[in-house]
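User: Sequence recovery, please. Input:
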């Protein structure tokens, strides 16, 4: 019997898989709007990043997020992601 596990999703930055709940979801709504989805439940196409500033930076530099979502991603979105990551893990 297979046990039901948390679904794994790949971080766009490091390429490692994490349980969906521990990743930050960025969603492109059916209307084509890109936003950060803290609930992880917004409808639309999702992209995932782990709570690591390096991963965000990588995804931003390589434009991975925009490629996956097939939409340009505003600096505002990245600012929001940064904010969420920082509030999530605080200082090391
Ligand atoms: Zn990562």
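Assistant: Recovered sequence (92 residues):
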């Amino acid at each position: 019997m297979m046990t039901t596990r948390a679904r794994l999703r790949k971080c766009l930055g490091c390429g490692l898989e994490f349980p969906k709940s521990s990743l930050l979801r960025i969603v492109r709504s059916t209307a084509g709007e890109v936003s950060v989805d803290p609930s992880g439940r917004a409808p639309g196409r999702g992209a995932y990043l782990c709570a690591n500033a390096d991963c965000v930076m990588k995804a931003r530099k390589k434009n991975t997020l925009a490629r996956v979502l097939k939409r340009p991603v505003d600096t505002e979105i990245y600012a929001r992601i940064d904010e969420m990551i920082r509030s999530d893990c605080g200082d090391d």
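The longest helix spans residues 75-89.
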